[in-house]
């Protein structure tokens, strides 16, 4: 996670993780053609004796549009 200057918490990850595609060929990487519509993020708690909090983070809108932000210059590469 990354705390942005505006105070919002963000998750930084690779493009292929949220898109389910190869960033060079744009081919779907899952052998059955699955595209992720959410990520499950395991957030550790201060009390390490308790299991982490699991947060569901959507990756696509209801219309199938990406909900993530890409680098303004490099995009998916």
Keywords, separated by commas or semicolons:
single chain; 77 residues; mainly beta; two-stranded antiparallel ribbon; two-stranded antiparallel sheet; 1 helix; 4 strands
SSE blueprint and pairings:
Elements: E1 2-3, E2 9-10, H1 15-19, E3 38-43, E4 53-58
Antiparallel strand pairs: 1-2, 3-4
What percentage of residues falls in helices of 4 or more residues? Answer: under 10%
* Total helical segments: 1
Share of β-strand residues? 15-25%
N-C termini distance: 20 Å
Mean pLDDT: 90
How much is the radius of gyration in Å?
A: 15 Å
Number of strands: 4
The major pleated sheet works out as: 2 strands, antiparallel
Quick structural overview:
This protein is mainly β and 77 residues long. It has one helix spanning 15-19; strands spanning 2-3, 9-10, 38-43, 53-58.
Question: Describe it for me?
Answer:
- The structure is a single chain.
- With 77 residues, the chain is mainly β.
- It has one domain.
- The protein is 6% helix and 21% strand.
- The protein is built from one helix and four strands; from the N terminus they run E-E-H-E-E.
- The protein has one helix spanning 15-19; strands at residues 2-3, 9-10, 38-43, 53-58.
- The strands form two sheets. It has a two-stranded antiparallel ribbon. Strands 3-4 form a two-stranded antiparallel sheet.
- Strand 1 (2-3) and strand 2 (9-10) form a beta hairpin.
- The protein starts with a strand and ends in a 19-residue tail after the last strand.
- The model has no long low-confidence stretch (mean pLDDT 90).
């Amino acid at each position: 996670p990354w705390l942005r200057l505006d105070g919002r918490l963000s998750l930084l990850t690779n493009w292929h993780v949220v898109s389910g595609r190869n960033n060079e060929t744009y081919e779907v990487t899952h052998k059955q053609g699955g595209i992720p519509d959410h990520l499950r993020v395991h957030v550790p708690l201060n009390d390490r004796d308790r299991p982490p909090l699991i947060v569901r983070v959507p990756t696509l809108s209801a219309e199938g549009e990406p909900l993530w932000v890409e680098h303004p210059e490099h995009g998916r590469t």
